[in-house]
Amino acid sequence: MTTSRRARFSRALWGPVLGASILAGGRLCAAPSGAVAELGRKIFFDPGLSQPAGTSCASCHDPRHGFSGLNGSLVGLPRGSRPGHFARRTSPSLLYLRYVPQFRFFQEGDDPALQPFGGFFWDGRSDSIRALVRQPLTNPDEMNNRDEAEVAVHLARAPYAADFAGVFGPVLDDPAATMEAIGRAIEAYLTAADMAPFSSRFDDFVRGHATLTVEEREGLRLFKDPAKGNCASCHTVNEGAGDPAASLFTDFGYDAVAVPRNELIHAATRPDLGLCERAATETPSGEATYCINFRTPSLRNVALRGAFMHNGAFSSLREVVAFYASRDTDPRRWYRSGVRFDSVPRKFRGQVNVTAAPYGRRPGDPPALTDVEIDAIVAFLQTLTDAPGSTVEP
Q1: pTM for the whole thing?
Q2: DSSP type of residue 173
């Protein structure tokens, strides 16, 4: 997707609704029931729902890390409930999910190309939080339940099982109904107002209640400058709107940036093709042209994460910004084999974004950002961290 198309589409879609509506799985909805949301919170933090016990949703979506995390892993990908098992991709933050739209394609003007947009997970595979929760619960490399029936057995033993039955009725004998109820509860919790707190220093700055340092303001300028960082072309920001909800720091689009290999796990993993691996019948995205594209994540609370990019290739935020600034000018720094984009299967390397800034430079050219400018952008990104205790936690 071109930079201008993303910017225009983002403004057209979000301008009328941000700050005024709650979105859950792409549909407007009323504020969730307090009782259902409270059950969702208990389920989310329950370590008894994995096999073996000990791993909860919060293990990999830890409030201390902006509801992302590694569950004690040292390889950049979250550790599962069994030793030696790891999730295939990093855990995205679960804050601000109420704004994530359903996956769809859009077409602008006379352009025949369809552009992907929205959906949950890195590849948009789920259109709702309710559908999303089944995946980690039954994934053998994550919470490792054999099937829905095993999840229902675990939940029937939970200390809140009576409350669950009181809210949802006698569903525990029906595994499918139990899973649907779990999805409803976790959706209510994750879309509650407290899970979109807008409590960062940046948000106070937008409201006119705080100031940014000289370095942070310079970082914001570079973040937006289309000739420098150009980060805002995908990680949208509108600090002049007066409403923090106008700056979600994602346009929910997709891009192919050829993230370097995660050398700690590369030998044990198969190539990750992203969007074209998504299985869907109503809005299929299996065409080769969509391969190696991943959804743009929000940068809110990004400084709290322990690993970055979909494969956990980077362990520091500064390293991420440096990659974007010098991927094309110093490819050997990022692709150790000496082959540019060697993390991408050869037949898809022509689909890597090489035109939008900060890309489009040649090896040996000056990078898009100096070290001082990289530090300024990192300083700005650190202002996006929400205030401690502003979300619904245990």
Answers
A1: 0.91
A2: T
Residue 285 structure tokens: 């995205």
Query: Three-state SS for 120?
Result: strand
Strands, E, within 109-195: which ranges?
Answer: 115-117
Model pLDDT for residues 302-355, shown as the tens digit of each residue? 999 999 999 999 999 999 999 999 999 999 999 998 999 999 999 999 999 999
Phi first, then psi: give them for residue 106, nearest 5 degrees: -135, 155
Q: By residue range, what is the domain housing residue 26?
A: 3-195
Q: Which of 146, 174, 195 is the last residue of a domain?
A: 195
Cα(113)–Cα(173) distance, integer angstroms: 47
The pair of structure tokens assigned to 69 is 């995390």
Examine the fold and report which residue of 167, 195, 223 is the final residue of a domain before the chain moves on: 195
Q: Are 162 and 109 in contact (CB under 8 A)?
A: no
Q: How many Å apart are CA 178 and CA 19, to the nearest integer?
A: 33
Tokens of 342: 């060697």
Residue 248: inside a domain, yes or no? Answer: yes
Which residue type, as a one-letter code, is found at position 89? R
Q: Which two tokens stand for residue 382?
A: 């650190």
Angle at which helices 214-224 and 371-381 cross, to 10°: 100
Which letter, b or e, does each residue of 331-367 get, where b requires 16 or more Cβ atoms within 10 Å of its Cβ?
beebbeeeebbbbbeeebbebbbbebbbbebeeeeeb
Q: What is the CATH number of the domain that holds 342?
A: 1.10.760.10
Q: Which amino acid is at 384?
A: L
Contact 245, 60 (CB under 8 A): no
Domain match, 229 and 368 both: yes
Which pairs count as long-range contacts for 11-15, CB under 8 Å and 24+ apart, including other chains? 13/101, 14/236, 14/246, 14/248
Q: How far apart are CA 129 and CA 127, in angstroms?
A: 7
- HSE, side-chain direction, 13 A CA sphere, residue 184: 15
Residues 110 and 257 in one domain: no
Cα(282)–Cα(193) distance, rounded to whole angstroms?
A: 31
Got the DSSP string for 261-272?
P-TTTGGG----
Dist. CA 268–CA 344, nearest whole Å: 16
Q: What are 71-120's pLDDT values in tens digits? A: 999 999 999 999 999 999 999 999 999 999 999 998 877 777 889 999 99
